[in-house]
Design a protein that fits this description.
Blueprint (H helix, E strand, L loop, with lengths): L4 E2 L6 E2 L9 H8 L9 H9 L4 H11 L6 E3 H11 L5 H13 L6 E3 H8 L5 H14 L2 H12 L5 H16 L1 H15 L7 E2 H19 L7 H9 L10 E2 L1 H19 L11
Antiparallel strand pairs: 1-2, 3-4, 5-6
Length: 276
């Protein structure tokens, strides 16, 4: 994790992505709004997991909002966060929601548009850069998996959707998948074998994957350079410098592309085909 930085109000360590530090709850209470960036690891995890566009996330929240009130209970929101970021503890979630309440986001029945806005609007440039880097490190795949699941439950039984995307998640998180991507793809495009690949070396894989998504879904559209670049940039961390990817970043990029393909192929799965 990153070295700790200090809260401007208390001088104590704080961190969006780093480990929890002692006295966190008391420091949050003392800092109030000025210490909004002093949040538990949950913030970094959730922000990374919810990397899909805010509008998409809001639409996903609406699938839980059967009454159309625009609200989600604290209990349901806590469960949803832990679904998005399973490595986040219950204590982390409670501290996250308490911090939201300290910033005058309703602490019981959350208006989810306000909560998403709060979660995605850092208080300063330093925090913004931390959040951006954490999101790049985690990649888009978990947020895309969540968004794809939310879209799918509007068409198919939730239990079948959860099983389908649960299998996708299990496969993508497995060591076998990481090893396969490294041996079959990364090592092949790493022309100088320095453990880093450039945008130019990765472009073909991104383009072919997005074209596959388009072909499966029936649009047959060629991906634009902007789409290809956006997919790369979203996984381009500072680990080996901007414009370059080491194997971990590359694996997360491929995970994202595989989620896109899995969503497109979903109607052809036996669980969802009406003729089976």
């Amino acid at each position: 994790s990153r070295a700790a930085v200090n809260c401007s109000s208390t001088g104590r360590p704080r961190g969006v992505c780093g480990p929890l530090v002692s006295g966190h709850r008391q420091a949050v209470a003392r800092c109030g709004k000025r210490c909004r960036g002093y949040l538990p690891e949950a913030v970094g995890a959730v922000r990374g997991a919810m990397q899909a566009e805010v509008a998409t996330i809001v639409e996903a929240f609406k699938t839980w909002d059967e009454s159309g009130t625009g609200l989600i209970s604290r209990k349901d929101l806590a469960e949803l966060i832990q679904t998005l970021a399973p490595d986040v503890s219950e204590q982390d979630v409670e501290e996250l929601l308490t911090a939201a309440g300290a910033d005058e986001v309703s602490a019981n029945d959350f208006r989810y548009e306000d909560f998403v806005s709060w979660l995605w609007n850092p208080s300063g440039e330093e925090e913004r850069q931390e959040i951006d880097e954490e999101a790049r490190r985690r990649g888009l795949w978990e947020g895309e998996l969540f968004a794809a699941s939310a879209r799918a439950v509007q068409r198919y039984p939730k239990v079948d959707v959860n099983e389908y995307f649960g299998e996708v998640r299990s496969r993508l998180e497995g060591q076998e998948f990481s090893d396969h991507v490294k041996a079959s793809f990364f090592d092949g495009i790493d022309a100088d074998h320095d453990g880093k690949v450039t945008y130019q070396e990765v472009t073909t894989i991104i383009a072919k994957s997005l074209r596959c998504v388009a072909d499966i879904s029936g649009s047959h559209a060629h991906p634009s350079q902007d789409e290809i670049r956006a997919a790369f940039d979203a996984h381009d961390t500072l680990a080996v410098g901007r414009g370059l990817m080491a194997v971990d970043e590359f694996v997360n990029l491929v995970r994202y592309l595989q989620v896109r393909i899995a969503e497109a192929a979903m109607p052809m799965s036996r669980a969802f085909r009406k003729d089976c």
